[in-house]
Amino acid sequence: MNxxxxxxxxxxxxxxxLAPGALADDTAIDGEAAIVVAGGLVRWVxxxxxxxxxxxxxxxxxxxxxxxxxxxxxxxxxxxYGGDRANEFAMRLAGASYEAIAQAxxxxxxxxxxxxxxxxxxxxxxxxxxxxxxxxxxxCAIEIKSGYGLALAHERxxxxxxxxxxxxxxxxxxxxxxxxxxxxxxxxxRSGDYIDLVCRxxxxxxxxxxxxxxxxxxCERIAFTLAETERVFKAAKALGLPxxxxxxxxxxxxxxxxxxxxxxxxxxHIEHLSAEGIAAMRAAGTVAVLLPGAYYTLRDTHLPPIExxxxxxxxxxxxxxxxxxxxxxxxxxxxxNMACTLFRLTVPEAxxxxxxxxxxxxxIGDTHGAIGxxxxxxxxxxxxxxxxxxxxxxGQRPLRVAVxxxxxxxxxxx
Length: 414
Ligand code: NIG
Ligand code: FE
Hints:
Layout: E1 11-18, E2 33-38, E3 41-47, E4 60-70, E5 72-74, H1 86-93, H2 98-103, H3 108-117, H4 120-135, E6 139-145, H5 152-169, E7 172-180, H6 191-208, E8 214-218, H7 226-238, E9 243-247, H8 255-261, E10 266-269, H9 275-284, E11 287-290, H10 292-297, H11 306-312, E12 316-318, H12 332-341, H13 347-353, H14 356-361, E13 379-382, H15 389-392, E14 399-404, E15 407-411
Parallel strand pairs: 1-4, 5-6, 6-7, 7-8, 8-9, 9-10, 10-11, 11-12
Antiparallel strand pairs: 1-2, 2-3, 4-13, 13-14, 14-15
Helix pairs in contact: 4-5, 6-7, 8-9, 12-13
N-(iminomethyl)-L-glutamic acid binds at residues 78, 107-108, 111, 218, 246, 249, 294, 321, 323-327.
């Protein structure tokens, strides 16, 4: 893919209907809207009838009444890895639990083996194919975590692939260092030593190479303790890096409250989140990232506390959590559907969850997740009558055109 060869979207886009909540300034446009794109950015947006005369000579793109949303944001993925874990899927069907598989040397550690065995170009090609699937659903910004290398050279390899994908596809990539994802066999019984390695060696080196936008930890009884998590957060803070957390997925570890104390961008999964965790997240402005694909794949039955999050006004994002073990999902719109069906989000909540709240979970809420003047021209024209259809259909791709960074990146108006 050579992004710079894609057709330019510079010009006046008319015949648009903006989905509720699409605009960064929270205004609404009744009737036909127009967006002017110039040099990769939104230059003007408003009612088509009010399009300033100076833009009249620009190339015209007639959306024919298409519904428009901001470019979608997938704020939690583990997109870069070697191999797959279809065998574990079969094991789980035969009754083994995620935790039992992990304890038996499968799970994350088996993906670590496959990731270490793959070279950077192989990882790139495999991840690019997956990224293309997500982009076909209107994703314009994505988070990609490391965490399947668990040694400096292999974590670097994953993060470099993440950066390369961003450049090649013109997609905004935020890369998250998840060195504290699992304990590899060489550190069995020595998790303190491994956390030393993460904090003293891997994180400073990768940060110095400009490969880290945020730092994450898997805080869970099958992964790292609260105290280990805090050590990683302290190291991140010392390097000026924002943190986020895989928190309270399988049990209530108190991770969310700790993360909130460190000003976390987001706490993710949170099926077992407590009232204290919610209060702490609210006070810190931390986003709750809901991952229905993992909930579904693990056949979890413990719902995240949606009603309490809603009542507290904690922003809720929705993401694929794409990973080879617990969420081999390659459609963010399917996650929108599942967030509504499984978690009972309303349609506007679920759509905000894959746009503005997802952007905020990545620390890019000022530029992404909503359409506004001066922001990157990331928006999607959909082949649907009503915004509710984006949550309603599943297994189809209603995308008509995706404009990414001012280029027509998918579909066409023809
Ligand atoms: O977000 N919870 C930890 N990390 C992933 C699973 C990774 C894996 O099983 O490979 C998740 O679900
Ligand atoms: Fe995850």
